[in-house]
From TrEMBL:
Sequence segments annotated as region (Disordered): 1-43
Biased composition, class Polar residues, residue ranges: 7-34
Organism per entry: Kwoniella shivajii
Name under which the protein is recorded: N-acetyltransferase domain-containing protein
Residue ranges of the TM segments: none
Domain N-acetyltransferase, residue spans: 49-215
Length: 217
């Protein structure tokens, strides 16, 4: 789906095997759950979705299904940002009966991380108080094409404005080149015209073209 990268940037498909370490303090979810991640009923209503912050481990099943299916459950979290106390994980949920827990149908992670080359940004975007990078943006395949991603991104932006009230926040991310229009329709702009290629998390598979996008929110 969206994602900051289904993969890690690398000059050659060789050296990322050790980038993703399991963390023994994280309770990885079991394969069973209130929501079947592989399929959501075609009769489900997407008009009254619930958006909220979630623990890091709640993102794991959907990351595994959509973004990193070749990586085992215990390696789905990236400790360098996923486990930071400042990182925000968000989820989109179908309306449900009270007290019945379900898996999110959309996920998105926001981490405080500096833009890689701030001097290359347009002058109007250079003097910001906080840099936040969007990571691991995904929607259940059974629910795609329902504006869930757009709504989840809008929720994330509102949440950042609340958390960093009064501060100028640069939201930035690596967008798949074929997703440019989606992000532009959400108010994002291209931050660097140069595109680059990412490979799979194990340095395998066909490279995917990316471009840096974002905006001040």
């Amino acid at each position: 789906m969206f994602d900051d990268g289904k993969s890690s940037t690398m000059p050659s498909p060789s050296s990322t095997q050790g980038n993703h370490q399991p963390n023994s303090s994280i309770n990885t979810p079991s394969s069973s759950g209130a929501t079947n991640l592989t399929s959501v009923s075609s009769g489900s209503s997407f008009s009254n979705l619930v958006f909220r912050r979630i623990p890091a481990e709640r993102t794991i099943p959907l990351r595994h299904l959509v973004l990193w299916p070749s990586i085992s459950i215990e390696f789905q979290l990236v400790p360098s940002y996923d486990l930071s106390q400042d990182t925000i994980h968000t989820g989109a949920f179908l309306p449900s009966t009270p007290h019945i827990e379900q898996d999110p149908i959309g996920i998105l992670t926001l981490a405080i991380q500096p833009y890689s080359n701030p001097s290359s940004l347009p002058v109007s975007l250079q003097d910001q108080d906080v840099h936040v990078q969007l990571h691991k943006f995904a929607v259940n395949p059974s629910c795609q094409g329902k504006s869930i991603g757009r709504q989840l991104l809008a929720y994330a932006i509102r949440l950042l404005r609340e958390v960093y009230c009064g501060k100028r926040v640069l939201l930035h991310f690596d967008a798949r080149a074929n997703q440019q229009r989606f992000y532009q329709n959400c108010g994002m702009i291209i931050l660097d015209d140069n595109t680059f290629v990412k490979y799979g998390p194990n340095g395998e598979g066909k490279g995917v073209e990316y471009v840096k996008m974002g905006n001040v929110i």
